Amino acid sequence: MNPDHLKRLLEAVAAGERSPEEALRDLAELPYADLDFAKLDFHRELRNGLPEAVYAEGKRTEDLKAIARRMTGAHGRVLITRLRLEAAEELLEDHPEAVYHERARILTIGQGEPRPGAITVLAAGTSDLGVAEEAAVCASWFGHEVERCYDVGVAGIHRLLGNLPAIRQADVVVAVAGMDGALPTVVAGLVPAPVVAVPTSVGYGASFGGLAALLTMLNGCAPGIGVVNIDNGYGAAVLASRIARSKSMASP
After folding, report:
1. In terms of CB atoms within 10 Å, which end of the chain has fewer, N or C?
2. Is the pTM of this model over 0.85?
3. Residue 228 and residue 219: Cα distance in Å, rounded?
4. Contact 70, 97 (CB under 8 A)
5. Is 185 a residue whose pLDDT tops 70?
6. d(C-alpha 193, C-alpha 226), whole Å
7. Element (H, E) at 140
């Protein structure tokens, strides 16, 4: 349930179109629905503006099907991350309206209402695209306008500079990079928007599975950078969305 659904329900009760008992049944599973193996947080969108996402790794396909049914029943939409193709194919049989974003490993059902704030997602190299697409697909599903600029790493900085006019239009920039992880620092020195930095686990041995990129981003000398965990495209999209929404609420 989101604020619009709750408002319509209360208005229907006030107008006599729904009985208090019917409304109580609709609200009975707030703040969460207990499926025994999972407790689904239906109250989250009311609290912070975005519904709970479903992290698929480690979950059985049958459990994911049950979760998807309940989430779509409550919200009319659901976002499932880190989903294997085989499991996605089974979910698509139950939800033919769903979309599986294979590179991002995300399945979406439904779509959020348009939200203010433009988000640009940068990927340093092609090996970073899985994480970058996770961020881009999530931000788009949240309802934001999303621009993608890929393969713009600092090893060929002319590629980044060639996209700079478009990047400067963003309210928030998500910069995804492995290897040396320098892209967020360079971008933060060139644009006025806050930068959400996402280290990825690509790279040779001394990258330590993304740890080197993470430390580079944490030690970036340009101000205005927030760093999320390694390969956490979803977390980057949530942070970017909150920044974008807070900026719009602060505008006169």
Report:
1. C
2. yes
3. 13
4. no
5. yes
6. 12
7. helix 129-142
